[in-house]
Amino acid sequence: MSQIFHPSRAAGLAALDAFVPRAGRRYSEARNFDDGPGNRSNISMLSPYIRHRIITEQEVIRRVLAHHRFVDAEKFIQEVCWRTYWKGWLEMRSSVWAVYQTDIATLPRSAAYHAACAGETGIDCFDAWAVELKETGYLHNHARMWFASLWIFTLGLPWQLGADFFYHHLLDGDPASNTLSWRWVAGLQTAGKTYLAQADNIFRFTNGRFNPTAFAQSAGPPSEGPVAAVPIKANPPLPTGAVGLLLTEEDLHPESLDLGGMHITAVAALPAIANRADAVTRFAHDALGEALLRNAALSRSSSVMMQTVDSDSLIAWAQAHQLKVIATAYAPVGPISDRLAILVPALAAADIALVPIRREWDSAAWPHAAKGFFAFKDKIPGLIGA
Ligand SMILES: Cc1cc2nc3c(=O)[nH]c(=O)nc-3n(C[C@H](O)[C@H](O)[C@H](O)COP(=O)(O)OP(=O)(O)OC[C@H]3O[C@@H](n4cnc5c(N)ncnc54)[C@H](O)[C@@H]3O)c2cc1C
Predict the structure, then answer these.
(1) Whose CA is nearest to atom 48 of ligand 1?
(2) Mean pLDDT across the chain, nearest whole number?
(3) Which of 19, 99, 127, 379 could bond 119 through an S-S bridge, CB–CB 3.0 to 4.6 Å?
(4) Would the CB of 136 count as within 6 Å of ligand 1?
(5) Residue of minimum CA distance from atom 38 in ligand 1
(6) Which residue minimizes the CA distance to atom 40 of ligand 1?
(7) What is the three-state SS of 273-309?
(8) pTM across the whole model
(9) Is 33 in the pocket of ligand 1 (CB under 6 A)?
């Protein structure tokens, strides 16, 4: 695993500052080129930081707009907002996540699946991307699209297992962006629209690094009925007084959360999700550790990294600090949200409330993700203005 990404806020901010001058027209003209690892100046490489909210979407957009007119940076801002859109979409349709979880637990993993993961299919570009993903924890957006398309339509493998392979190895692995992008390629997000990789497109946008020949030229009709959307719930009122702060890998900048009348007296972190590539779990673990120390220093309180996710250790921590309320940044649909859902009743039985704090950015944006991204896109200027 190469050391392109460092799990700290300082590294995220430095990467942002270095990229900001390139976020204007240059980005929109050059972003689709995958010039290969080590040659990524046309894109930001900020996703591992934004995914864990080591740096937030809001501050990325704010810094970009301090340097560029909206019209020049619009493409970059739209890309940042894709993540918000996907999160909102999945938040309203958590059943899609639940079904996907069952699928990856039950779908058989064939010899062809193992060959694809090993980068041993004989398709040069595909095999190179499989290796690049495992070695760097990153792939260019266009490569992700081509890879997913080849996985589904040329190799005939289930999209769910491809999404799981990505999630296992991506440093920016994000339940919403990853799962829904794979569904989009498979034709499940936009009715009747699949994404078919074309050999000449790969040749052009890799600057001739790859010159593939035979690919699937058709995609079978995707099969799935309409998915009902459940509206986003309103934010419950926040309590006041002393609280413990619980960090998760979903949001590592709680300094910018609106705590209202709460004040932090102790800080703890849930361990990073473990069933991923070591480097991915280590990145999340180290980023959590850094945020933990930063926030404990800020609130002049003690800090602890939980060793396990069981409710007993969390209750013991809360009782040791005489906490009746634990505040945590709202975890969108995904494995952290699944973990918290298990903890809530056990904490409540010990008379401890777990209070999720949703960012205004999410509360304002997510309800607009009821339909496609084009409808959402129109809301972006208003969202930024607000
Ligand atoms: C099949 C597939 C799977 C993907 N899985 C993930 C994933 O697990 N996690 C993830 O963060 N992104 C995922 N993406 C989206 C996108 O590929 C990456 O966010 C992007 O390549 C990250 O590189 P960058 O930071 O240089 O992006 P830039 O081009 O510099 O974009 C700036 C920022 O905008 C956001 N962004 C850009 N494109 C997208 C997009 N299509 N969807 C959501 N956010 C976007 C990211 O936060 C990114 O850091 C996936 C895309 C596809 C096609």
Answers:
(1) 47
(2) 95
(3) 127
(4) no
(5) 79
(6) 82
(7) CCCCCHHHHHHHHHHHHHHHHHHHHHCCCEEEECCCC
(8) 0.97
(9) no
